Amino acid sequence: MDTRRGNPAGMELKHLRCLAAIIDTGSFTDAGLELGVSQAAVSRNLLALEEILGVRLLYRTSRAVAPTPAGVQVLARARLLLSGAEELVTEAAAGHARLHIGHAWSAFGRHTTEFQRRWHHSHPETELRLIRHNAPTGGLAEGLCDLAVIRAPLDLKPWSHALIGNERRVVALASDDPWARRRSVRLDEIATRALAIDRRTGTTTMNLWSDTAQPGVEYTHDIDDWLAAIATGRCVGVTPQATAAQYRRDGITYRPLRDAAPVPVHLIWRRQDAHPATHAAVALAIDLYREKQQAPTR
Q1: Is residue 213 within 8 Å of residue 142, measured between CB atoms?
Q2: DSSP 237-285
Q3: Domain count, the chain
């Protein structure tokens, strides 16, 4: 056989399917029957694969076929590629049957459970999955989700977006902190403490305070790191109310923060090829935030 290598770009899945079928069935004839092609087509595909790879893949006799050492290695890789191709087809076919919503910290906060319940009731044909990803766009830029809940300051120009609501800010404290016994904390008081800040996905910046009275800063890497730093008592945190709803932890107490502007909550999505359920998700989120704002206080 000519051992000069062919163009790898010429390799096709049908070549790999023929190799696997020949070995699995034990003959070219049976491989053709399994694949629904002629024996001659099976032979041509195997020959093409051997020419592309530049190695002999099978020992052939009048009674049997068996893989060469190279054939054993190629078959193992071929099965992985074929399996991956089948998964790709399945995922693509089911793509619009699932809606992935990403978030960096706390999804829809106290509205999360109700969002999931109403979605399941109103859109049973579209499975909802919430994904936490520690990135500024909650995984949207990385291709991990169809929409993302965004609270951190972000340039929204590259994305389609909708403001779904606003959330009050709260202070996160160690439960044995003296402030934990108070009903609320003023924004200017934070300047006297060390403040935990997540620069990557957090909502808190030094712009909340004047240049002359700013807190000390301890930078953290994600929500779990942020909570751990606060639980030690060495710093406090400022965060949207959603964090308090999603992350109730032993050793952490949340108190309302006075005199601080609320945090806008956006849903963002790609301008091109938006998921068909995008506008339904946006409408539901807006309704939930509006209902909570209009609920009578007691």
Answers
A1: no
A2: EEEEHHHHHH---TTEEEEEEET-PPEEEEEEE-SSS--TTHHHHHHHH
A3: 3
173 has which bridge partners?
Answer: 253
Could you list the mean pLDDT of each consecutive 10-residue stretch along the chain, which spans 298 residues?
56 91 91 91 92 90 85 91 82 73 94 96 93 94 94 92 96 96 96 93 91 92 93 96 93 96 96 91 96 60
Any idea which residue has 């520690």 for tokens? 134
Are 112 and 219 contained in the same domain? Answer: no
| 207 close to 263: Cβ distance less than 8 angstroms | no
134 and 242, same structural domain?
no
The β-bridge relationship of strands 169-174 and 252-258 is antiparallel
Q: What is the pTM of this model?
A: 0.68
Quick one: 217 and 196 in the same domain? yes
Q: Give residue 197's domain range.
A: 169-261
Rounded CA separation 165/264 (Å)? 6
Tokens in use for 175? 């439960």
